[in-house]
Write a structure and sequence with these properties.
Blueprint: H1 13-16, E1 23-24, H2 34-40, H3 49-66, E2 73-77, H4 80-91, E3 97-102, H5 107-116, E4 120-125, H6 134-146, E5 153-157, E6 159-160, E7 165-166, H7 170-179, E8 183-187, H8 199-202, E9 206-209, E10 221-226, H9 228-236, H10 248-257, H11 266-282, H12 284-304, E11 320-324, H13 331-342, E12 344-345, E13 354-358, H14 366-382, H15 389-403
The chain binds pyridoxal-5'-phosphate.
């Protein structure tokens, strides 16, 4: 006779979550607009006419956000890392040479993914907490060519969320990739729609992003765009594709032929549709301006409180800000206090005595900035740090009055 194990009794979700939602001001996920949340609450047929219109519109909207005319835009079921894996799986295979630029934790993921599918990887490491210099990239490309071992693919992150470094020379590096006949893959997970990226104008071959950061959608559905050139390489490759789910030639069925690949994450796609639509409604120039003004305001205000920013201005990301903590402060205690007393969450670090505040999508609103700065300052003060909260708040108000985000 079959015996069943005892069914578990656990707390329902409303007993796990706080009565009032925490304000998500960390490195993602970020708050979403109500239209995005409402769309995420629906389930529809993944192969019906409504879904097919949604898919078509997601591609149209995403093309604007990527600034590309390329037809080869796809949604990806999974986190930003899944979109990274899709780019790598399709463009790298056994024996392909990959130059992987490393600024920190996330950019080194590309290298790991590339070597797992058989790529011959070379890591070019940027100076600590600094952008990679285009000259260093050109030297690596030139040397490999002279040695008769040219690279096939170069990987780079636009914004390294882990240490808040911005690769500001990305346009020059993408141009170098073209010059040396190398396909470029760019991780824009934290930057897309928060800082300028022009896929076609800069000549990038694959751009990946997640839903839960700049786009202000939900986690779990991501986007990828391939250039015509990259698509041509994928069509002509003879090497087997390591991952069935990430094979773009199969994904093409769903994304471009109204056919079946696997059951798409319909709710997340509906949410992504709304998030992209709201970005297009706002327009990219207005959105970039809002992000830059909000981020600058917060940066000035943090400094006015008496805290240092982690990265020098020339390498500093707008989308996520790294803030150095006084020696005496225990990061875990600080984060717990901010969350318990002020219902605000920010992120800890991947190394270095810092915390990170996100400035992506819906995080970049003046009421959120005032609340997170206040929570940070008051919590630090409670933990004994010498922090000038009024001066920081006054600076933020002054900056926001100037900029009116
Ligand atoms: C720059 C960057 N790349 C990749 C990722 C990975 O995204 P996900 O956690 O959605 O897989 C992140 C996540 O924080 C990121 O910030």
């Amino acid at each position: 006779m079959t015996t069943y194990s005892v069914p578990p009794t656990v707390a329902p979700i409303d007993q796990i979550l706080p009565d009032e939602p925490l304000l998500l001001m960390g490195a993602g996920p970020v708050p979403v607009q109500s239209k995005v949340a409402a769309a995420n609450s629906m389930v529809i047929n993944h192969l019906g006419d409504a879904m097919s219109q949604v898919v078509s519109q997601v591609k149209t909207l995403a093309r604007y956000v990527f600034q590309t005319q390329s037809p080869y835009v796809f949604g990806v079921s999974g986190p930003g890392s899944a979109a990274m894996e899709m780019a790598i799986t399709n463009l790298v295979w056994s024996g392909r040479r990959v130059l992987s630029i490393k600024n920190g934790y996330f950019s080194s993921r590309f290298e790991e993914m590339a070597s797992r599918v058989g790529g011959l990887t070379t890591v070019l490491e940027a100076p600590e907490n600094h952008y990679i210099d285009a000259d260093a990239v050109e030297t690596a490309l030139k040397e490999a060519k002279l040695a008769n071992q040219p690279f096939d693919v170069i990987t780079i992150v636009q914004g390294e969320t882990s240490n808040t470094v911005y690769n500001c020379q990305l346009p020059e590096i993408a141009a170098l990739a073209k010059k040396y006949n190398v396909l470029s893959i760019v991780d824009a997970v934290c930057t897309l729609s928060t800082m300028p990226l022009f896929m076609d104008e800069w000549g990038i071959d694959a751009v990946v992003t997640g839903g839960q950061k700049g786009l202000s959608s939900v986690p779990g559905v991501s986007l990828i765009a391939f250039s015509e050139l990259a698509w041509d390489v994928i069509q002509k490759r003879e090497a087997p594709m390591a991952h069935w789910c990430f094979d773009t030639r199969l994904a093409y069925e769903f994304w471009h032929n109204k056919g079946y690949h696997y059951t798409a994450p319909v709710s997340g796609l509906l949410a992504l549709h709304e998030a992209l639509r709201l970005i297009c409604e706002e327009t990219l120039p207005v959105r970039f301006e809002r992000h830059s003004r909000c981020s600058n305001a917060l940066q000035h205000a943090v400094e006015s409180m008496g805290l240092d920013l982690f990265v020098k201005p020339e390498s500093r990301l707008n989308s996520v800000i790294g803030i150095c903590l006084p020696e005496s402060i225990n990061t875990k205690e600080l984060l717990a206090l901010m969350s318990d007393r002020y219902l605000v969450e920010i992120s800890g670090s991947f190394g270095g005595h810092i915390v990170r505040i996100g400035q992506m999508g819906e995080q970049c609103r003046s009421h959120h900035l005032l609340r997170v700065l206040h929570a940070l300052g008051m919590s630090l003060q409670s933990l004994g740090a010498d922090i000038d909260v009024p001066s920081g708040m006054a600076e933020l108000e002054k900056q926001l009055l100037i900029s009116r985000p």
